[in-house]
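Weekly puzzle thread! Below is a chain. First person to post its structure in token form gets bragging rights.
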Amino acid sequence: MALKTVLVAACALVDSDGRVLLAQRPPGKSMAGLWEFPGGKVEAGERPEDALIRELKEELAISVKEPCLAPLTFASHVYPDFHLLMPLFICRRWEGFVVAQEGQAIKWVKPQDLRSYPMPPADAPLIPALHDLLL
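Winning reply:
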């Protein structure tokens, strides 16, 4: 049986101190309690960049312009009931202050400390690309 492919865009927001923002999946969601890069599902007919701009506004109350999103790497992971394809963008410039809007915990994390946060299986393989860029 062929698995449905789900396209999710994620963003490594990097602050002026070189820290990366992680968001914790809230109770009631699948994989609740795990930490991930902010982002969300790409809707039909939507580009990953547009999905990220929308999701970052909804989830974190910040405005990101497309030229500030740089593709970094991607994850391809098979979960039991779907295949996840997740491009990871990096962003160092945005307007506004990061404020959690959906009940999620958020934390700015030094790149070398990212592995100490439990993450969904698709997110963890993205860390080496961030290390290479930020350390």
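Puzzle host: Confirmed. Bonus trivia for everyone else. The chain has a mean pLDDT of 95.
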